[in-house]
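Chapter review: from sequence to fold.
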Amino acid sequence: MFLLDKLKKCALEFKKLFGKDYYYTFENDMKIRVYFAKKHFHHLLGLGKLTDIAPLVITKNNTATNIYKNIEKGKITYSQISKSVFFDKIKDRIDNFNYLNNMLFEKVVINFDKSKVPSSKLQSDIILYQDKGNYYLHLCLAQDNICYYPETFVVQHDDYYIKGQQELRIKELKVIKKDKILISKQYIIPDKETQDQVAITST
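The token string follows.
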């Protein structure tokens, strides 16, 4: 039986988020727009940490977008990058990247206070996170001139990034296709702390 390359599987999972705008409304009625693009994948997975794998090193002619395309085409593989002496630094990210889509509906840390995590270099001020029991997954969102983008994906074995931070519930998530060929979908998040289920209605 054919087994899809583990790294390519991550790329294809991320591809599901392309071509859409994600409009969040939080319980304090704050609204943000988030988008995902090929260029974000490199940093989300921490591929820049594998400095001994030449095809992953960003240069003028080898952009983050080009690296994503080469992974999608199978030109850069899991077997290849796993030979890096730094691979342990990102292995947890790859192993948990399949949860990314579900994290769009999870709990949120808003107005992230960087002073409480002095060792972090995060630029993000919003974090979607998921408690997996023995560890936490974090999708960190930073703001550019237009809207929010995914800065990085962090697997942490304690509550370092969320302890003492301000948390809000996601009240509503509206997903709109950028080409506007398909109707938008509106996700009404139930008023439950666990947010285990999502009711979907077309708009």
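Two observations follow directly from the output. Residues 6-15 form the longest helix (10 residues). Strands lie at 20-26, 31-34, 107-110, 126-131, 136-143, 148-156, 167-168, 170-177, 185-188, 199-202.
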